[in-house]
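Hi everyone, sorry if this is the wrong subforum. Our group has a chain we'd like a structural model of before ordering constructs, and none of us has done structure prediction before. Sequence below.
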Amino acid sequence: MKILTQGFGADTGLIAVYIERPPPMSEYYNLNKIQALIGGEINAINMASGNGWRKVFNVYAKFIAQLNHRDHNFTKYDVWQKYRDNCLLQQHSQEALLFSPPKIGEKLYKYHVVAGRTYAKKLLRDHIFTNTLEWLDDEFAVDRTLNLVVCPYFDYRQLSNIKISKLCGILHSLD
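Answer:
Right subforum, don't worry. Here is the predicted structure as tokens:
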């Protein structure tokens, strides 16, 4: 059985972040595609799903801002909050937040980030990708051939500003 790619954002682009589960909202339980968010949808998810999802979106926007990649359109926004509210994971963005295992061979995104060591180890166990990861420390791993990085989960406590900087540095080293 083919596993469908499911998540939020652009169906091709610069970066895909993979997390294990979608928001606990009925409209996303049977998501079977990559769906661009619309204006205000992040706020609606935050209101319905709680603080954990607010952290995911905030950390994602902070990460995109700090990455400041030359091929990304973040430069149109002066602060990460405006990017989050007006572009993050919307149709005109260049990123995705996916709730299905990575399909790296399809080359739909330049970079792949698996958020959470436990999730990454589950994917390795299930042979979703090969064990060519180089563990840099207890929290970060990189596969330079696949442009894949494992990092802490997108939560302030796990992926602090210092660790966001480290993640950005690893991604820049893949260019």
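For your construct planning: The CA atoms of residues 13 and 94 lie 5 Å apart. Residues 7-173 form one domain.
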